Amino acid sequence: MSERNWFKATSPADRSGDILVSFDAKWLQVFTHGSVESIVRRRYPKSFAPRRMYLYVGSPHSCLIGFVNINGLRPIALRDAEQVISSTNLTREELNSYFKGYEHIGCYAVSPMALFRNALSLDTLRAVSGFSPPQSFVALSRRASDWLAQQELVGPPRDRRKERTISKVTGQQR
Which CATH number goes with the domain that contains 159? Predict the structure, then answer.
């Protein structure tokens, strides 16, 4: 096991510009088979603008599944969140509940998902780097971003929104 968690940046100079965000297990299905254009989070970086978000899905899966490129990040109020709700895969009730106790939350505009060919298990991440999943997010070190960039992807990022069409030939949804 590594002597420390080198995934986490220890200073602004060590920061890669990427973040790793922890998600509840229910998001695995959405991320691997659905489409998300916006991600809302209560906690988000305010001192820098991240360029890429790595997606860690918690227990019982406990794995890093891939990433999205971040096209923008802005704080939004609940009234503004109504404009992005359809792109988040959240219900109105979930969004209202998510805002409880918060005046503003962060809204990331993201690219289509890029999934790793093999999800990186918590055991693998711990053995390689001393990784410990963050409660919310962590700014990644340059070393971590370089290592993650070497992981094999399933293929180029795909826009799953375009895949949800009915085939004219087979009549099946694809």
Answer: 2.30.130.30
Inform me whether the pLDDT recorded for 173 exceeds 60: no
What are the DSSP calls for the chain, one per residue? --SS-TTB-SSTTTEEEEEEEEE-TTHHHHHHHS--SEEEESS--SSS--SEEEEEE-TTT-EEEEEEEEEEEEEE-HHHHTTTGGGTT--HHHHHHHHTT-S-EEEEEEPPPEEEEEEEEHHHHHHHH-----SSEEEEEHHHHHHHHTSPBSSS---HHHH--B-TTT--B-
- In angstroms, the CA 102 to CA 76 distance is 10
**Domain annotation covers residue 8:** no
- Summarize pLDDT for 61-81 with one digit per residue, the tens: 999 999 999 999 999 998 888
The tally of domains found in the chain comes to 1
The answer to whether position 137 is within a domain reads yes
Residue 68: domain span:
15-163
Residue at 172 is within a domain = no
Q: Which residues pair with 76 in a beta bridge?
A: 105
Residue 158 lies in a domain: yes
CA 122 to chain centre: 16
